[in-house]
């Protein structure tokens, strides 16, 4: 069964203040990681037009591959997400990268960020929320509130993500991906 990523992203001027607010609310720190995401475009369709994404993500140099499906029509970004770690046969992601290039995929850009994550226990029966504080090179500082949901729980997850963002005082959600923001900044 497919899982859906349900998320909102907000620009944040003061990550330290938001970090304190999360800790004061009982959020559990999950650590700080360095992410380096290399995005690819399909040889026969433009992911920018279909609102899909394919990337190799390196978390503290450990590679994984992610496919994100087209966004559902919703005020909260919601879409299928498939992600898995690359194993011992591809310890740095270079074999997967070479395969994608041989298949005609084109490298688009690389997004680098420092990500600090927190787990937030739900107040009602629902999936745990993850809040990340991101410092994205050449893009800025943002907070993402994310929940993973099965198809029958998307509505509840969307409501929960929105309510938690409001409770933190976060405003003006950013609908663009970090990749889109980076490409527009590099214009």
Automatic annotation (TrEMBL):
PROSITE patterns: CYTH (PS51707)
Pfam families membership: CYTH
Superkingdom classification of source: Bacteria
Residue intervals of the CYTH domain: 3-184
Record protein name field: CYTH domain protein
Source species of the chain: Rosistilla ulvae
Taxonomic classification: Bacteria, Pseudomonadati, Planctomycetota, Planctomycetia, Pirellulales
């Amino acid at each position: 069964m497919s899982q859906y990523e349900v998320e909102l992203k907000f620009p944040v001027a003061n990550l330290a203040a938001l970090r304190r607010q999360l800790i004061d609310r009982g959020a559990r720190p999950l650590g700080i990681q360095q992410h380096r995401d290399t995005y690819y475009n399909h040889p026969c369709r433009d992911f920018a037009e279909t609102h899909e994404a394919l990337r190799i993500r390196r978390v503290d140099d450990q590679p994984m591959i992610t496919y994100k499906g087209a966004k559902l029509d919703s005020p909260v970004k919601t879409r299928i997400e498939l992600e898995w770690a690359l194993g011992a046969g591809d310890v740095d992601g270079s074999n997967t990268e070479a395969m994608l290039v041989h298949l005609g995929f084109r490298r688009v850009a690389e997004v680098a960020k420092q990500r600090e994550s927190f787990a937030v226990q739900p107040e009602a029966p629902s999936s745990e929320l993850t809040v990340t504080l991101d410092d994205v090179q050449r893009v800025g500082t943002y907070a993402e509130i994310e929940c993973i949901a099965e198809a029958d729980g998307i509505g509840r997850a969307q409501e929960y993500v929105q309510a938690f963002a409001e409770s933190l005082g976060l405003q003006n959600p950013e609908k663009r991906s970090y990749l889109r923001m980076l490409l527009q900044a590099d214009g």
